[in-house]
Amino acid sequence: MNKQDIYNYLREKAIWHEITEHKAVYNMTELSEIEIPYPEADAKNLFVRDDKKRNYYLITVKGDKRVNLKELRKANQTRPLSFASEDDLMSIMKLTAGSVTPLGILNDEERKVIFFLDKDFFEEPELIGVHPNDNTATVWMKVKDLESIIKEHGNCINVVNI
Questions:
Q1: Closest by alpha carbon to 114, among 77, 59, 32?
Q2: Cα(132)–Cα(138) distance, rounded to whole angstroms?
């Protein structure tokens, strides 16, 4: 699914969302330079794999948080974690670096990606801002709707304290 496919999908499913179009952003610093309507709901996404390249994980946290992969590993009993390659990102989620997003899981045909979602998104206002598989826009939606989309697609989702 590309950006337009994501917009169409959200409309077809009647999922409330708002779209903020913006210049391409590749990291949280660049995003902070853009005026966005819900800065408290922006998400940072990390695509990682275990040391055997058997398990792939998408970690989505509030934009201002740091992720300690060793702590995440211990808390969730995974093998050692490191960043997945751009080739893995493209082959599994059909995304390029800088465009990593939970909505990319909809491109995971084999349901390989295990999704770790920061439980802090479920606090007021219960919104999340993610790319629509393209880093030139942010889609704002209810976090429960995002959770439902991922579950419906068939990927494993874990709401965790990060």
A1: 59
A2: 6
The pTM (predicted TM-score) of the whole model is 0.94
* Partners of residue 60 on adjacent β-strands: 45, 117
- Residue-wise pLDDT for 133-142, tens only, equals 999 999 999 9
- Ramachandran area for residue 53 (φ above 0: left; ψ -120 to 50: alpha; else beta): left
Q: How many residues does the chain have?
A: 162
**Cβ–Cβ under 8 Å, residues 116 and 58:** yes
- Cis ω before 125 (30° cut-off from 0): yes
DSSP letters along the chain, please? --HHHHHHHHHHTT--EEEEE-S---SHHHHHTS--S-GGGBEEEEEEEETTS--EEEEEEETT----HHHHHHHHTPPPEEEPPHHHHHHHH---TT---GGGGGG-TT--EEEEEEGGGGSTT-EEEE-SSSTTEEEEEEHHHHHHHHHHHT--EEEE--
pLDDT of residue 29: 81
